Amino acid sequence: MDGESELKPSRLLVLYASQTGNAMDAAERVGREAERGGCPSVQVISIDRFDVNSLPDEKIVIFVVSTTGQGDVPDSMKVFWKFLLQRRLSNKWLEGLQYAVFGLGDSGYQKYNFTAKKLDKRLSDLGAMLLIEKGLGDDQHPSGYEGALDPWLSSFWKKLNMMHPNILPRISDIMDPSMRSLEQPKFEVTYHLSDNIQLELSNVSDLKETEKVIDSALSTSPMQFYYQNKKPHYFLKMITNHQLTKRSHSRDVRHFEFESSLNSINYQVGDVLEILPSQNPAAVDAFIRRCNLDPNCYITVNPRDAAKPSIGRHTMNMVHPVNLKSFVELTMDVASASPRRYFFEVMSFYATADHEKEKLQYFASPEGRDDLYEYNQKERRSVLEVLEDFPSVIMPFEWLVQLVPPLKTRAFSISSSPSVHPNQVHLTVSIVSWITPFKRTRHGLCSSWLAGLDPCETNEFHIPAWVTRGALPPPQPSVPLILVGPGTGCAPVRAFVEERAQQNLTRSVSPVLFFFGCRNEENDFLYKNFWLSHAQDDGVLSTNKGGGFFVAFSRDQPRKVYVQHKMKEESKRIWNLLSAGAAVYIAGSSTKMPADVTSTLEEIIMEESGISKESATKWLRLLEKAGRFFIEAWS
Prior knowledge:
six-stranded antiparallel beta sheet
């Protein structure tokens, strides 16, 4: 072999950084299409399994990265990203690397696809050569991230084929539906005799045994990387379920209180509680019947090829066999989440009715993407509903384990202070429901389930939960606070106010301004008595303490009034606190509120200090860098 041939790149490396599984799903699609196009070597690897020191040795790398929180990199990417930011790396460190970046984000957030954008810039700064303009997948797109991935991938394959035909010799095969073949599923299921095996989850009375079952199931589900850092976890009992909104009101917002069943709950204000919801038992039973599964058998689930890079280094063997029904209940979202497009492609291989096979192949194709969206995502059809619509399809359980959307925890901002409520954790939850285009009522899985629990009747019912760090760090008592939390955005604010009121009993604390918003004073003034009590006398929200409580009722007058209007009215007080070193905390809906509030703050800084808009924007950016400006927003 001559020297020139040895220098030709022969492998395509796909590195993904996933927080909830979407980036992993997209990366694996890239890998499948590359193999279909004749790429001699494709590796799809989670970015935390890749030795970043060897990045200069690679020739072609596709990065598929999601953005989480307020522009943060996924947990799996933190070490990799920290390494890339080292000043010692020269602008020629990646001179031999050609790369492409596809990002997954949500344009409803201010820092949309921030991870992809800053990774693209950093790779370029280090000398790598961009193969194609970065792709930006958007959850707000009618077809989700695939609305951008389809055309981006098509353009990428054409560019790669033009530059490296030895890497991708058969680009037409990628586009040809007849060239699709079914690979082996990534996991294999081993079935065990039930003799001498523990009782199934629903009958386990010992919480330690229940914990083993949950750990066993979660640690080997396709989403095991999602749970690896969620320790320690707790088993909680609901002790309070109280409706905060007026019962006749269209919105149902609840105050929930929980106690730990085993160990004391360790958290701080600003933290987040993640709850693993229970699924409707009837739906689980219907799924098991539809798939011809034995609910009483016991299984272990293991990677088919432990050395395959895409499996991930965190995969562990199950502690012991788990009842199949328990595994489905704990890890597979069969009745609330919609399946991804690859689910329909795999189904097409198992359809025995010609008209079903044809329909499934169409749904799996780029041409059928919009129709699939109308049928699947827009209606939020569940896996169970999809399978019932295609009765000739009987998929092996191994494929169902891999492709059924994982049952994910739901995250809620904690609305209590641990120093005020030891061994308790409180949540403020909006009960989610909506009407689909075909006039079907849908309900949020976790919120509706919690709302239906009766603390008087569920004393022995234990809810698996994890505490994780939120985007709002606890402030020191000496730091003045400007808090903005309309709607359920008041949840973390309630925790901060409780904590500061407790601190106020033993030491001097700095002032707190809180701006709250809701539709009507009568219907959804959440925690009205709580705020008003702390705004009186020498409470932490009182004018006597230099603080204040300001509420905007958007629908109680002809002209809509929002929190930003109340902020403008208190412009001088806000500026005085900012000048005194205040920290700003914004929490609530990700749609328009964070951007509107940020813009209002810039206007206040500009007007009160006499500086330009550009300088005010920079002033606020410096506040964020100094750790005094935080946003926690959710869809």
